[in-house]
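Progress report, Aim 2. The chain analyzed during this reporting quarter is listed below.
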Amino acid sequence: MTLQKRSDNLWVLTFGDEPREQLDQLLVDLRASDPCPDVVVDLSPAELLTSGHLSQLLRVRQLLIEKDQRLTLAGARGDVWGLFTTTGLDKVFHFADDAEAAVAALRG
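Predicted structure tokens for the chain:
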């Protein structure tokens, strides 16, 4: 898992070979964290997402909402972006062009 804890208040998860396991671990880590951080999920390495991944991202989003924190998805392109627009989730999640833009906006 590529999880960078940029500070106590900001984490960046970059998708790797096992996004399902990464998102499961992220949920565990977020539930255990105090304070709970804002999170950027960098989707730029992903070529494909499944409905299971979307479900996990929705769970992360809900947990962060409950903890009054923010989630930004970064780098969604091609088929990955198409999946968000097809499902209407492009209206649910907040997006940034890339992870660094997302980090800057959350720190802003």
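The beta strands are 2-7, 10-14, 38-42, 71-74, 94-96. The helical segments are 19-32, 51-66, 78-87, 99-107. These observations will guide the mutagenesis work planned for the next reporting period.
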